[in-house]
Amino acid sequence: MSGRLDIPSIKLVVEALEQCHPSRKLVALQHIANHNGGRLDVPSVNGQYVPLISSIELFGVYAMAEDVEDLPKNWIKAATNILQADEPAIS
């Protein structure tokens, strides 16, 4: 990961994506990344460039997917794991 973890921003994005209609999650994630210093490696719109694996790094959370449509789900899963690990342990 190249970015520092930004826990408050990660929480906001997870909440926003969970409220988003499934057909709009990828577009929403791309928009958030494009406007917040995230890095995307996804197929081009014209279909000429198709990487084997799509990836995103946003607020220090990195996710990959063979199918670009799985990228939001994988990012949410990675972000959720980070948020759970950041919670204080209850004794």
Textual characterization of the structure:
It is a single chain. By secondary structure, the chain is α+β, with helices and mostly antiparallel strands. The chain is built from 3 helices and 3 strands. The chain has helices spanning 7-19, 25-34, 71-86, and strands spanning 39-41, 54-58, 61-65. It has a 3-stranded antiparallel beta sheet with strand order 1-2-3. A hairpin with a 2-residue loop joins strand 2 and strand 3 (61-65). Helix 1 packs across helix 3 (71-86). The longest helix is centred in the C-terminal third of the chain and has 16 residues, at 71-86. It starts with 6 loop residues before the first helix and ends in a 5-residue tail after the last helix.
Feature tags:
3-stranded antiparallel beta sheet; 3 strands; 91 residues; globular; alpha+beta; 3 helices
Task: Give me a quick take on this structure.
The chain is of the alpha+beta class and 91 residues long. It has helices at 7-19, 25-34, 71-86; strands at 39-41, 54-58, 61-65.
**In order across it, which strands form the biggest sheet?**
1-2-3
Shape: globular
Low-confidence stretches: none
Q: Helical proportion?
A: 40-55%
Report the major sheet.
3 strands, antiparallel
Order of helices and strands: HHEEEH
* β-strand number: 3
- Overall mean confidence score, pLDDT: 87
| Span of the ends, CA to CA | 31 Å
* Number of alpha- plus pi-helical segments: 3
Could you tell me the radius of gyration in angstroms?
Answer: 13 Å
